[in-house]
Design a protein that fits this description.
The complex is a heterodimer of chains A (470) and B (270). In chain A, 27% of the residues lie in helices and 35% in strands. Chain A has twelve helices and 24 strands. The chains are: A alpha/beta (470), B alpha/beta (270). At the A-B interface, α1, α10 and α11 of A face α2, β7, α3 and β8 of B.
């Protein structure tokens, strides 16, 4: 009996370590630790940026320095001077997979990236530390005018299009971490989908932090023109180090009239990463913006994807899953802002806490004056697996209009002893039973994911669940 | 080998309060036993303790399955040895599809040595089997895609329990009020199904207030439980007597158990 147990434990620990490997690389350039004007100028120099971008960065640095740390959310025990803000892993971005340096290629091959691309993706970006090291886009999409590139390249090649929106959805003044990103941003995706173009397969970006104390600050801008459609998926991983790293992205999305955008994130950072991300979308007339946000890893995540419904008929849908285990705090949620009449917003949030993990839902539903006949519904359910774990709900509702419909439901349940007993009485082990209950709990979200991601998500949940019982 | 389940001098408490006070009961493969008793007598507790519910504390006695004491085993290990209980009010498990749940359960019970993560029984075989069995229970095939007990009507819940009985083919099955909350037609269907699935193949312990279930499953033995003890055992005529005349005679003949029963019932209802 005892050998059986130790055998299966061993099996699990190798599986869990799937993402926990470090690649030895020779960086082309690595800025010294810390942040100041010199570092920001250095980043701008290396990227050979136009003056407006350098100014944008330096202005943002001042804002970052002047803003206090947020006093809500989680504890951010970060020394900003002990982080590397910029690391350039390679000189060239690979157009074909063969061009990618061997050791980096090896990293992404272990993560299954090129395989996924061959199977079901319309385009791929892979970011290693600060720079996008590989990019591809199906030819027919490029011919239709679709742009899918890294944001640095977009600054050079599509300056007018980029500048029209860059920093307008999320200005540097928005919050301390948006300011930090604006000062030191590097990499990220730039997507433009022209009028009426519907992209059937997802575009995917994959973000990898490899070095210790590395900060990753990608900057993503997606513009979906009138009647166009895109599904963008991002995945994130990093190996485990003893000291903390920081991931602080800014993601801006514009969905124009009748456009549709779905943005799916499966975040599985190592448990020593602070994941402090600002994501916001503007949806115009009859446009649909969907955020599907899965947070499994990180030490602390503070992330509240937002949809601003700017014109009549716009729709915002946010599905959020948070899973926190020992030493983790997921402060996740969503924001819906109704700025126009006849807009519809939905938030569905599911959180799971186990082994002393803490999950918080923090959400805002705001209806501005004049946004009459708007509908807003918020449902958040929390599942707590053991007495050491914690779940909180912080719903903020601000309504400045009479003729609206606002619904808010919240539930917190402990994993039922009766549910466990029921499944076990049918021959399922305690671990299988718990996993089944948890999978059932997030099933409404999983079924919204594309097949491949649903499978991956289930697998990640199973990894999280293993070792949680007995 | 003929299977045998033996309950010897079983004492059980919950939160320090005694509920079972020395139950003795032996069930052989192929036998049908009826367990009857008023509210608070310990009927359901006996079933839950045999199945291995973690909330009950066994203070004395043993439960032997083919000579092996199963008291230290978790519910899943007991299930894999062939113990089953159809619950009176099975709990809902939202998001978990009946088919997924049952495929796992069936695999584990048929392959007791299966470890987590190992293969499940083939989907094709399983589908065919569950479809046949659902047909026999007059269940719509859509049922397999619904979430376990979630939003089920009383009748659907009971049928789902019987479906599990049919799939898992245990050695011993405890049926806790599998007839309650059903209309006459549904009771007939449930009774017939249980007879087809279990009669002569399993040892059955049928916990019931009513005698309808017993019409199709005439008990070889009827046990009356009162105040946590089996105070009388008879044949099917005893079940008929209790059904028509209630527990007055039993109470009068066993005043101590009746008093103990009243006490438990009072505790339970406060």
């Amino acid at each position: 009996m005892s050998t059986e147990i130790s055998e299966s434990r061993e099996l699990k620990s190798t599986e869990i370590n799937k993402y926990d490997f470090k690649t030895k690389t020779d960086a082309v350039f690595k800025a010294r630790k810390g942040i100041d004007e010199e570092i920001v100028n250095q980043i701008s120099d290396i990227k050979n940026e136009p003056d407006w971008m350098r100014k944008f960065r330096l202005d943002a640095l001042k804002i970052f320095e002047s803003k206090p740390m947020p006093e809500w959310g989680g504890d951010i025990a970060l020394d900003f001077q002990d982080i590397f803000y910029y690391l350039k892993p390679t000189n060239e971005q690979g157009r074909s997979w063969d061009d990618v340096p061997e050791e980096i290629k090896d990293t992404f091959e272990k993560l299954g990236i090129p395989e996924a691309e061959r199977k079901y993706l319309a385009g791929v970006k892979a970011q290693f530390e600060s720079e996008v090291i590989y990019g591809s886009l199906k030819e027919d999409l490029a011919n239709q005018g679709v742009i899918f590139t890294d944001t640095d390249t977009a600054v050079r090649e599509h300056p007018e299009l980029l500048r029209e929106y860059f920093g307008t959805i999320i200005p540097s003044t928005d919050n301390k971490f948006a300011a930090l990103n604006s000062a030191v941003w590097s990499g990220g995706s730039f997507i433009y989908v022209p009028k009426g173009v519907k992209i059937d397969f997802p575009l995917q970006a994959y973000f990898r932090i490899n070095e210790e104390n590395m900060g990753q600050f990608e900057r993503t801008l997606i513009i979906v023109d009138e009647g166009a459609q895109v599904h963008y998926v991002e995945g994130c991983t990093a190996p485990m180090y003893t000291s903390e790293s920081l991931h602080s992205a800014v993601v801006e999305v514009v969905v124009k009239k009748n456009g549709r955008c779905r943005y799916t994130t499966i975040q599985n950072w190592a448990n020593n990463i602070y994941n402090l991300v600002t994501k916001r979308a503007f949806a115009y007339q009859d446009a649909v913006m969907e955020w599907v946000d899965g947070n499994l890893g990180s030490k602390l995540t503070m992330k509240y994807p937002a949809v601003y419904m700017m014109e009549p008929g716009a729709r915002g849908e946010i599905l959020s899953i948070a899973f926190s285990s020992a030493g983790q705090h997921q402060d996740a949620g969503a924001k819906l802002v109704h700025c126009a009449p006849n807009t519809t917003g939905t938030i569905i949030s599911k959180s799971i806490s186990k082994n002393g993990g803490r999950s918080s839902y923090r959400g805002l539903a705001r209806v501005e004056e004049g946004a009459y006949n708007s509908k807003c519904s918020v449902v958040c359910d929390a599942l707590i697996l053991d007495p050491e774990s914690r779940s909180d709900t912080y719903p903020y509702i601000e309504v400045a209009e009479q003729d609206v419909s606002i619904g808010h439901e919240a539930s917190v349940s402990r994993i039922g002893e009766e549910q466990l007993f029921y499944l076990m009485s049918r021959g399922l082990s305690e671990a299988e039973a718990s996993t089944m209950i948890v999978n059932g709990f997030i099933e409404p979200l999983i079924k919204e994911l594309p097949m491949e991601y649903a499978v991956e998500m289930n697998r990640l949940i199973q990894l999280q669940m293993e070792g949680s019982v007995g | 080998m003929s299977d045998i389940l033996e309950i010897k001098n079983l004492h059980v408490a919950i939160e320090g309060k005694p509920i079972l006070r020395g139950v003795n009961l032996t069930i052989n493969k192929g036998e049908t036993h009826a367990l009857m008793g008023p509210n608070g007598s310990g009927k359901s507790t006996l079933g839950l303790v045999i199945m291995g519910h973690p909330n009950y504390e066994v203070t004395e006695g043993e439960i032997l399955l083919n000579g092996q004491n199963i008291l230290d085993l978790d519910a899943d290990e007991r299930a894999r040895l062939g113990v089953f209980m159809a619950f009176q009010r099975p709990v809902a498990i939202p998001g978990v599809k009946m088919a997924d749940f049952l495929r796992h359960a069936t695999t584990n019970v048929r392959h007791p040595d299966r470890k987590e993560g190992e293969d499940l029984i083939s989907m094709r075989e399983f589908r065919k089997e569950i479809k046949d069995k659902m047909g026999q229970l007059q269940m719509d095939s859509e049922f397999a895609r619904r979430y376990v007990n979630d939003g089920f009507s009383g009748g659907e819940m009971k049928r789902a329990e019987i479906l599990q009985l049919a799939m898992l083919q245990p050695k011993f099955a405890i049926l806790d009020e599998t007839d309650s909350g059903l209309d006459a037609d549904a009771v007939r269907l449930a009774s017939q199904s249980i007879n087809e699935i279990g009669h002569n193949k399993m040892g059955l312990l049928i916990i019931t207030h009513h005698d309808k279930l017993l019409e199709h499953n005439p008990p070889d033995f009827t046990h009356v439980i009162l105040g946590g003890q089996i105070v009388e055992t008879g044949g099917k005529e005893l079940a008929a007597e209790l059904h028509s005349q209630g527990y007055e005679r039993i109470r009068a003949e066993h005043p101590e158990s009746a008093a103990a029963n009243d006490e438990t019932e009072t505790v339970a209802s406060t």
